[in-house]
Specification:
This protein is mainly beta. It has a single domain, classed as Porin, CATH 2.40.160.110. It has 2 helices and 13 strands, in the order E-H-H-E-E-E-E-E-E-E-E-E-E-E-E. The strands form 2 sheets. Strands 1, 2, 3, 4, 5, 6, 12 and 13 form an 8-stranded antiparallel sheet that branches. Strand 8 and strand 9 form a beta hairpin. It starts with 5 loop residues before the first strand and ends with a strand.
Amino acid sequence: MAVPSTVVLVSLLAACSAADPPSDDTTDEATDEATDEATDDSVPTMLECMTAPGTGAIDYDVDHTRLTASALVITTPNGTFHEDTTGIVVGESMSATSATLELEWTERGADMRLYIYVDVDGTDWVVNEIRNYNGDADAEWIYYEGQEIMRCPLGQYARGTLSITGANDLSQNGTLSITDLSFGSFLVP
């Protein structure tokens, strides 16, 4: 059984804090509450939803799903892996109610996979699970699940910086960090 992930969305917290700073007598209390919310698995934290997609050196536009970012880094007990757009296989599996964005590549002799699972409920698309290989020759999945990772209305993109921690059945932890993420699914081509 996979361990629930921890979602830390730094850019959203910074944007909220900068937009409406608390008065001097409540600054410490408000900061403590924001920190508690960012690290509490029971409180789903969301990226900002926007109508326009972002841009970045990483840009995958596959039929009904699009991901852009300036950096994508997977850290596992077997090393740190950086998405390398040369040799990436991009696929998309899709039904009326779910989709999967599939990125596959080889790095330092290890097959790497990053799969993002998306569901749709009629008004929003939702990511409840992401998984990647651990970078071992006998690849094992590391799961990032247990809470809502991303949610936006249909036609919109989740944008911000995403850093999540997950684990696998071998008690191996992993971290997925996507800088300047822009992700949308169930998009009309």
